[in-house]
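User: Can you predict the 3D structure for this chain?
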Amino acid sequence: MSDAVLMQLQDHFGERLQQNVRLAPYTTARVGGPARWFAVASSSQQLSQDAAFLWKGTLPYRVLGNGSNLLVSDQGWNGFVLLNMAKTIRVDESADQPTVYVESGAALTTLVRKVAEPGLSGLEWAAGIPGTVGGAVYGNAGAHGSDINKCLILAEILHRTNGQLSLRSDELGFTYRSSSFKREPGNAVILSATFKLERSTCEAVQAKVDAVNEKRRCAQPAGASFGSTFKNPAGAHAARLIEAAGLKGTRIGGVEVSPVHANFMVNDGTGCAEDYRKLIELVRKAVLDKFAVVLELEIELFGDWKN
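Assistant: Here is the predicted structure, written as structure tokens:
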């Protein structure tokens, strides 16, 4: 990197600029090497300004939220990681249909709790999902028969060439666990989202949240993981295919196919990204050989890989 580029980074980010920051603590799988450059954006306005600045240069960058659904390589990444900590949440109960505005770095679990307090319904399905609002919009997160597409009114984004835009849900190309953002990475940054809600009671909403959390607790393993590893194939369930292939409990290094839920791979604290990747490849090959089904990753691989 030239001295001129370094000076530009220092001028823009100031004391926020960090070097060689290990990414494992910022991912739910708890693996991943260092980012060459790293900074925290604490508001959607700052996130927008940072993204616009980075797009003007030649340094590759990625926005990171809670690091779920993401496998970061052990080698890390020789680029810039912008950690999204924009977390403002504003509930509006004044209209016939209440809504909630939330910045993209807010945790889904926090959002669910915030709207449950005044007895507003519509996001109970998201209880316990370990991601941010931005990540949920990016990947069209869903559970228990609902998803982001069904709840979202507007997303505020910064587009690389078209600037700041407000887009309706039907303009975001949502499909199963995907969106136009995910299919065209690097072209836009999600700044905030507005969701529709329905009036209910505190007791009724909290009962639904508790039921979702209990179901998740019983059906999914504790410990470090990125949640579901593979998308469900059409007409099938990835977990059932993996279990039927006899892979529950299969381990490589410190990472294991969970005996509780076969679509989860859990890090016992000693695992690395390469353990995850080898186990993913083993599972995909076994399911392909036994059932002629190609499992598609729900997670993304990120960083500099050996091969």
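DSSP finds nine helices and 18 strands in the chain. The first helix runs from residue 3 to 13.
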